[in-house]
Design brief:
- A five-stranded mixed beta sheet has the order 1-23-22-21-20. Strands 2, 3, 24, 25 and 26 form a five-stranded antiparallel beta sheet that branches.
- The longest helix is centred in the first third of the chain and has 17 residues.
- Helices cover about 10% and strands about 45% of the residues.
- It has a domain of about 250 residues: Methylamine Dehydrogenase, Chain H, CATH 2.130.10.
- It has four helices and 26 strands.
- With about 350 residues, the chain is mainly beta.
């Protein structure tokens, strides 16, 4: 799926589409299949609730869109244990560090191919000690910064064809979501890397839809959960997969949330023309996820200009408990208590709206 929020890495994406096409014709080994272990089924009486009635708004954060610390296009937001905010600006190709009141206190990186620079900034996360890990999809590279913004090391992402997301796993490892191809070992959508560069494991078998359509239509989302487990899913499929921090499959929540419309393979796969765009607009996709207050929140919406956005709340066992309507923006992150939504973006300012679950 072409992500409307991503910029500047058309070449990498074209390569990934071409490789997926070649695999669909010539790969002798079928994509790996997950285990049959399933999480529990969703209850039949899932509550459909209005977001405003279930969450209490906090004072929004307002970031200026002019000047040296301008926030132009926020892609993700990460919160450090000390309460600082890390904004991934995919248009400025840099990172902004803000305090809890939304004041920018540091700008890291910029456009380029030198140390600490980016060509297609897709994501960034705080580690537990305020170090920062970033994902540059253009160079297929992760970079580790210290709390002062100095480069500590870089990590070429071996066999990653189209990296989409980065998730920190404790203090010593990280996950990259996106197409992974390891000759002779199948094709996955996630890989774990060690910060000391000594090990990596790939998992989450690529959906057959990738191969049936001869193009990559799936992004991937991932969230680190308490206790070391990981929740992952493909953007255009309803399943939520639970893995251990080493990539061992635990279970899959395969039930469809309400109003999900599953994208099916086309009879005659074609290039990205108008017909294909219309085909993609028949799908529902995940557009954000975060773990807040003991729950996994997953925002999904139907494609097209008039797509309806919903927020699903899962408990610790991945049982869907609530679905919220009238979601106030795009979910970009969260901390122990607060959900962060990207609100209005204008030529003058960017608003981040904050909410906590009402008691």
């Amino acid at each position: 799926m072409i992500d409307p929020g991503s910029r500047g890495h058309a070449g990498a994406r074209q390569l990934s589409l071409l490789v997926a096409a070649l695999f669909s014709f010539s790969c002798d080994q079928e994509p790996q299949t997950a285990t049959d272990m399933q999480c529990g089924l969703h209850p039949e009486d899932i509550a459909i609730r209005d977001f405003a009635g279930a969450f209490t708004p906090l004072e929004p954060l307002v970031f200026g869109a002019t000047g040296p610390a301008a926030v132009l296009s926020m892609r993700t937001l990460s919160v450090s244990p000390s309460g600082q905010l890390l904004l991934t600006d995919s248009r400025s190709l840099n990172l902004k560090v803000a305090d809890g009141e939304g004041r920018i206190v540091q700008v890291i990186g910029g456009e380029g191919e030198g140390p600490g620079e980016f060509t297609a900034l897709m994501g960034a996360v705080f580690l537990s000690d305020d170090r920062i890990l970033t994902l540059d999809a253009g160079r297929v590279l992760a970079t580790l910064f210290d709390a002062a913004g100095e480069v500590l090391g870089t990590f070429p992402l071996q066999d990653q064809l189209d990296p989409r997301t980065v998730v920190a796993i404790g203090e010593s490892a990280f996950l990259i979501g996106g197409m992974v191809s390891t000759p002779g070992e199948g094709n996955d959508m996630a890989r774990i890397y060690s910060l000391d560069g000594t090990s990596s494991e790939s998992f989450l078998p690529a959906d057959q839809l990738l191969f049936d359509t001869r193009m990559i239509v799936d992004g991937v989302w991932a969230v680190a959960l308490p206790g070391g487990s990981l929740a992952l899913g493909l953007d255009v499929t309803p399943a939520v997969h639970l893995f251990s921090e080493t990539g061992t499959h635990i279970c899959t929540q395969a039930s469809e949330p309400p109003q999900w419309s599953q994208l099916l393979p086309r009879d005659e796969p074609v290039a990205m023309d108008q017909a294909t765009r219309e085909w993609i607009q028949q799908a529902t996709m995940t557009i954000g996820a975060a773990h807040v207050g003991g729950s996994l929140y997953r925002q999904y919406r139907s494609s097209g200009d008039n797509g309806v956005s919903l927020l699903a709340e899962y408990d610790a066992d991945l049982n869907l408990r609530n679905v919220y309507t009238a979601v106030p923006g795009r979910l970009v992150g969260g901390d122990d208590e607060t959900l962060f939504f990207l609100g209005d973006e204008s030529v003058d300012e960017t608003r981040v709206r904050r909410f906590r679950a009402s008691q």
